[in-house]
Amino acid sequence: MTATSTPPPKGLKAPKRSLPAVFIAIAALALSSCDEQSKEREPYLAHVKVESVRLTPDVVRASGTGEVKARIESELSFKVSGRVISREVNVGDRVKAGDLLARLDSTEQSADLESAKAAVASQEATLRMASSVLARRKALTQTGALSQQDLDSAIQQFQSAQNDLDAAKARLDVATDTLRQTELRADADGTITVRGIEVGQVVQPSTSVFTLAHDGARDAAFNVQESVLTGNRQPLAMEVALVSDPSVRAKASIREVSPAIDRSLGTVRVKLAIENPPPAMSLGSPIVANVDMERQERINVPWQALMSKAGQPAVWTIDPEKKTSRLKQVEIQRYDSSKVVLSSGLQAGDLVVIEGAQFLRENQQVSFDAGVAR
């Protein structure tokens, strides 16, 4: 088949295309294509959240719980053995010096005392007889009726009787003191904190029966981990407060650190002297000690800002003029619950990335809100 063109009907002319219009259309298409390519070549700007770090007062604090105790405590005990026939006080009772606390059966001690009294009376009679004999022999010796040997014998008997009387009196004193020891009395004003006997119980000498907390100064006693006491740092300030009412507070200072370690707990006993303890801090009250160990100006960053560089801690920083990222190594002083305290690596005013740092790289162009940086 042969293609033929159909001529326009008579009276109509074929439309003429405008050459400039065609060029304009082609140019528009070319410009549109260039815009799309430039958009494709435009670099991606990561948007991050930044924070301007600053020096803030950094206080290293430590705390622990303990109890209020008397500075002086007495372990009271009988010096003789026996059966307890009465107990006059209980835990928590206040006593005065000399008050009767408990009594032992004193039947045996009373018998020993009567025997000692009788021995003293007998020796006194013997001494009187020896003294009379000595006087007579002295008189007879002066007249020549007796020899010097007889006088020396009388003197020896008198001295022996005198020594026997002194020994009998010493045994009487011991018996008297032993009978007195069957009664246990308070050695000072205070409060009974521990009771270790019951009526009818047989106790041995030097067995602790009561613990007496003396009136006066009060201490706060704590069991502290041995590692806390290493080093030469001295506390800057110490304060104790009641666990039940933290508003009840008092200043404190270290009074005693035990040289021995509790092997079962790995702790050391530490006592703090409480300055002017309020009345609410009674014996046995649970308290908490707050200790300021160190104060210094340091920079801290949020946990989420912490990264790693060559296995060392680092953070992303932003150059505010170039708006580029940089990973800077830092040294950490310590980790707190909500922040990381730094010892070096940053300067006050540095912009630190706190959000959006996961996909950053060195010298990457970023965008951030100027109002966020402070």
UniProtKB/TrEMBL annotation:
Keyword Chloroplast: no
Record-linked Gene3D superfamilies: 2.40.30.170, 2.40.420.20, 2.40.50.100, Helix hairpin bin (1.10.287.470)
Boundaries of every Multidrug resistance protein MdtA-like C-terminal permuted SH3 domain copy: 301-358
Coiled coil: 151-185
Domain CzcB-like barrel-sandwich hybrid: from-to ranges: 78-213
Molecular function (Gene Ontology), one example: efflux transmembrane transporter activity
UniProt keyword annotations, A-Z: Coiled coil
SUPFAM superfamilies reported in the protein's UniProt record: HlyD-like secretion proteins (SSF111369)
UniProt-listed InterPro entries: BSH_CzcB-like, MdtA-like_C, RND_pump_MFP
Gene Ontology CC: efflux pump complex
Record family assignment: Belongs to the membrane fusion protein (MFP) (TC 8.A.1) family.
Record protein name field: RND family efflux transporter MFP subunit
